[in-house]
Amino acid sequence: CFPSRNPWLRMTQQMHNLSLLQSKKHSMPSSPSAAKRLYRNLSEKLKGSHSSFDEAYFRARSDRLSLRKASVNFQCNEAMFEAVEQQDLDAVQILLYQYTLEELDLNTPNSEGLTPLDIAILTNNVPIARTLLHVGAKESPHFVTVESRSVHLSTLVQEAQQRVTELSAQAVSDGLGTDSAQREKQLKGWEWRARLYQRMKAGYEHARAPEAPTNVCLMVTSSTSLTVTFQEPLSVNSAVVTKYKVEWSSSEDFSPLAGEIIMDNLHSLRCSITGLRTGQRYYVRVSAYNMRGWGPPCKSTPEYASPSNWKDCSGRKPRHRGHTEALERLLQQVRAAHQHYNCRESSKLQNAGRKQSVSRSLKHLFHSSNKFVKTLKRGLYLSVILFYKDNLLVTNEDQIPIVEIDDSHSSSVMQDFLWFTKLSCMWDDIRWLRQNMAVSLSSSTALQARQKMLSAAAQLQNLLGTHNLGRVFYEPIKDRHGNMLIVTVREVESLYSFFNGKWMQVSKLQSQRKSLSTPEEPTALDILLITIQDILSYHKRSQQRLPPGLYLGYLKLCSSVDQIKVLVLQKLPSVLCHVKIRDNSNVSKDEWEWIQTLSGSESVESMDHTSDCPTQLFLYELQTAVKALLKQINLPLHQAKHFRLYTQEVLELGHNVSFLLLLPASDDVCTAPGQNNPYTPHSGFLNLPLQMFELGIVACFT
């Protein structure tokens, strides 16, 4: 399994590559001495006053650029071998930082049949071995058995000792000849290499097979998959583990095996087993491997699991039977009408004169800024905040772009506002909506008000030169002068001007407005500028998505005359107040059946571990999450005796994020106007309109 050429010649050539001086120039474009110089330069920089990889990197840039002109792969590979042999962790890390894995050629064995990882493992250099494993280094493919590694190490030691003996004899016989200095250097090099191989052989002989992995946990992650996580063996006396084996079977004695997976990528000690049969019981075990072979396996906890999902429970009736089909039919009707409109609009645009289009564009370029509102009078307005980092896009008059919707607003304006917020999902369809609403327009005040909102949005799109106006802020800004300002917010990717405007820092815009006037009763525009940082922060936080996992959410509503609001966290307003139960988002059939056993009268406080509970770990995780969530909303556990778990379904939001819901008592889920709210949390919470909350869920998880 090794190269068939003469071992002595192979060792001689390697020694020439590692010699400190070259007696003659090599014919190849790059030399091993260049790799040695690279390693020396790295070592000298690390031994100096430089404390960071960045400094060493920039100081070695000239070396790096010059080496790239020649055979970069060869030099980098040789430099990596020398750094590992010298047990220089800093040099190894810098090489990994500076060069790609292709340039370093980590997994190609050298002329001795070894890779850098082999040398690190055999010399028991755990830090270097772990560093190499983390970036994907592999052991030499030549060592197909444990015995082959032992034989090969013995051969390397024997060849090195033989070469030392020959060079020593030549040095004695030649005396002080012209080549004595060169031969002396070669002799020292071979003596050093003989000691290295002896140390590698001793490391191999003293090593033993690894112990079993620890904390092997088995999780049900879907109806057809299981996931196992584990940690390294506890023992530090054995050699470095280089791979793991995950085995599974439907038999407790693992005979026969249903399958196995070899894990040689140790970046994450987590393995997903897919393609399993729903409801079938599977046993799983994990074993570790090092240069002395496979260690004993460790069975998982729990010992077995059956792939399943909460939807697999027998007798469960879908809550939304027929709803999906009905919604799809409605969507098809809307798509058909929309497609007909697009075709008609396309034909109109093709027939329109090019001259008229150009003249309109020029007129829009020079006169658009005059159509923005400068001062607010009594009425309803629409504004857009386009921002990039701490810069806002403003008009030439240093104003936030604002247009008028109407010179007055009715008492039902909040319902119209909540309807308008949904347009943030379909800004491109404003013209189509205006046309369809115009067809059905009647004397209805609500329809007329919404038509004016669409007209204002279309006007703002034309003035700005972009359809996307961003997301609507969750509440309009009101003042005592009778003004109401609807705000949309959009973050852009660069300082690009959509219209004849300019970019200005937020602080500068605020200071200019403050210097112009400081009214005793600020207008809605003043309030907008004062609170603009809060608005931008809300916009950024509302787009944050939860990492995958199963969460426990707290559902608390409050109602007013014209809307219902949901309690959310200010730092993450797109989801309910929550705590994480675990990383696995799937709720298995057994876990869901246990949740169903909780009667409506059973309190959260009374949940306790029972000997006959089949899901002990899930019960513990859920109980811990309940306590943490109650603490978050500032509610003592004894006051939550009537709280319940929602047992109709698991809320699956998408992107492997699922929610179980914790509900107050039936009469306290939604607090009516004038009703005392016994569950008032501390600051850091927000009551968000229900429609805005729904839009946040759609934006983040679809």
What is the element layout, followed by pairings?
Blueprint: H1 7-18, H2 32-47, H3 53-59, H4 61-68, H5 72-85, H6 89-98, H7 101-104, H8 116-122, H9 126-134, H10 146-174, H11 180-206, E1 214-220, E2 226-231, E3 243-249, E4 259-263, E5 270-273, E6 282-290, E7 293-294, E8 298-305, H12 323-351, H13 354-367, E9 380-388, E10 391-394, E11 402-406, H14 413-421, H15 430-439, H16 445-464, E12 471-472, E13 477-478, E14 484-491, E15 502-505, H17 506-516, H18 524-530, H19 532-542, E16 549-554, E17 557-559, E18 564-569, E19 572-582, H20 589-596, H21 616-632, E20 644-645, E21 651-654, E22 657-663, E23 670-671, E24 685-689, H22 690-701
Helix pairs in contact: 2-5, 5-6, 5-8, 8-9, 10-11, 14-16, 15-16
Query: CATH fold name of the largest domain, please?
Result: Serine Threonine Protein Phosphatase 5, Tetratricopeptide repeat
- Spatial gap, N to C terminus: 54 Å
Whole-angstrom Rg: 36 Å
- Domain unit count: 4
**How many strands, which pairing sense, and closed or not: the largest β-sheet?**
9 strands, mixed
